[in-house]
Write a structure and sequence with these properties.
The complex is a heterodimer of chains A (152) and B (82).
Chain A lengths: L1 E4 L5 H11 L5 E8 L3 E2 L2 E10 L3 H16 L4 E7 L1 E4 L3 E9 L2 H17 L3 E7 L2 E5 L3 H8 L7
Parallel strand pairs in A: 1-5
Antiparallel strand pairs in A: 2-7, 3-4, 4-6, 4-8, 5-7, 8-9
Helix pairs in contact in A: 2-3, 3-4
Chain B lengths: L1 E5 L3 H5 L3 E4 L8 H11 L12 E4 L2 E3 L10 E5 L6
Parallel strand pairs in B: 1-5
Antiparallel strand pairs in B: 1-2, 3-4, 3-5
The chains are: A alpha+beta (152), B alpha+beta (82).
Chain lengths: 152, 82
């Protein structure tokens, strides 16, 4: 299940919906990313997320498919917001379900690292200091590297 | 006319997120298009950075890939969401 939308994300509703589709699982992990109020450049007023369809959706779907081959997670839900949003609002929601918790935690972590560094989005932050395009931090790339296979 | 898209910070440089361009005779590959547009926008190499990837018709490509008048060509600086 993948949604890329300009509308607000209601993480509670998404989790409720996911729990219905993942009926029978022994473990559900969900993650919600929010627009931070504080940034290096100052107080965040807003964030703009740009996507490139269908490359954005195709890439996320491929990451979901990879997660399903690497971990026993039959149910995965990813929702990502695009367009204009404000501090405190949900920008991303990821949920995974499995028989046991470890697979669900790891698959969700893997998907978030994909979304932070490889998903086809561009972010522009508006702070009290003005506007600036934000690219992934070194830490984000280091996090994503943890999942590299030795054959990569 | 090829349709050219500039994502993220590149649209600040080019002044528009997209445009249509008649490809000159000197441009037959993605790499040659980079060179041509970098000069045209006086971008001082911003479009030549290896971290700026090019996609032709929604597929990432190498600079050696051929470009034609019917293509949609996207210039993509480093990506990331979440």
């Amino acid at each position: 299940m993948l949604t890329v939308t300009e509308g607000p994300l209601d993480a509670s509703a998404l989790l409720n919906e996911f729990e219905k589709t993942a009926m029978g699982a022994g473990a559900i992990v969900s993650f919600t990313g929010l627009v931070r109020a504080e940034a290096a450049a100052g107080q965040v007023k807003g964030l703009y997320l740009q996507a490139y369809s269908p490359m954005t959706e195709n890439g996320i779907q491929a990451a979901i498919d990879e997660a399903k081959t690497r971990w026993p997670v039959p149910n995965v839900s990813v929702a990502h917001r695009v367009g204009e949003m404000m501090a405190g609002e949900a920008i991303v929601f990821v949920a995974t379900a499995s028989v046991h918790r470890r697979a669900a935690f790891e698959a969700a972590d893997f998907l978030m690292d994909y979304l932070k560094t490889k998903a086809v989005f561009w972010k522009r932050e508006t702070t009290d200091q003005g506007e600036a395009w934000i690219e992934p931090r070194a830490d984000d790339y280091a996090d994503a590297e943890r999942w590299a296979k030795s054959s990569d | 006319m090829a349709r050219i898209l500039y994502f993220g910070r590149l649209s600040d440089l080019t002044g528009a997120a997209e445009e249509t361009v008649a490809l000159p005779d000197t441009v037959s590959t993605a790499g040659e298009l980079r060179q041509f547009l970098d000069l045209r926008f006086e971008a001082n190499g911003a479009l030549l950075e290896p971290t700026v990837r090019i996609a032709i018709n929604n597929e990432l490509c190498f600079d050696t890939m051929a470009v034609t008048e019917t293509d949609e060509i996207a210039f993509m600086p480093p990506v990331g969401g979440g």
